[in-house]
Design brief:
By secondary structure, the protein is mainly α. The chain has helices at residues 9-36, 44-69, 90-117, 121-162. It is elongated. GO terms for molecular function: ferric iron binding; ferrous iron binding; ferroxidase activity.
Length: 169
Amino acid sequence: MAAKQLLSDECSIAVNHLASYELHVSDAYLSMACNSTEDSVEPFLADFFEDQADMKRENGKQFLKYLQECGSKICLPVIKRPEIDNWQTGIKALEYGLELENQLTKLLVDLKTTASSKKEYGVLNFFGKFLDEQNKNTNYLQFRIECYKELENMNQEEKDLLKKPGEVL
């Protein structure tokens, strides 16, 4: 059995924060999924958000397991739940998801910087794949938001064309 690679305090704290934030994001996506099932216009978003919730929860669990394998203390900081109960529209939910993903990317980049400065190559190797995944998620959400906005604009233009002079829709 390989010897445990002990983490520096800085990396241990960063991984704990990252694990906690992954679980927080999972919770937010689950809330979005539950809210999206009521929206018949965008039913596929419920599946997307639920998949994201599952993936983030699994990532959080992997981070906790990593801490255990390194002999680090697990001490998850408390992160306040989103104050949004109703996401209103699919675009609003996607935009909030993008905010969460951007923060998650920042935490991963900060961990990478810390691990590099501490020469903790095991951390760099383990978390590198998660940073790649993050970049893909962020790009996908940006693309989705752009598509939705274009669709909204086209729908509005169509309504405007159908509107007769003096008629209010």
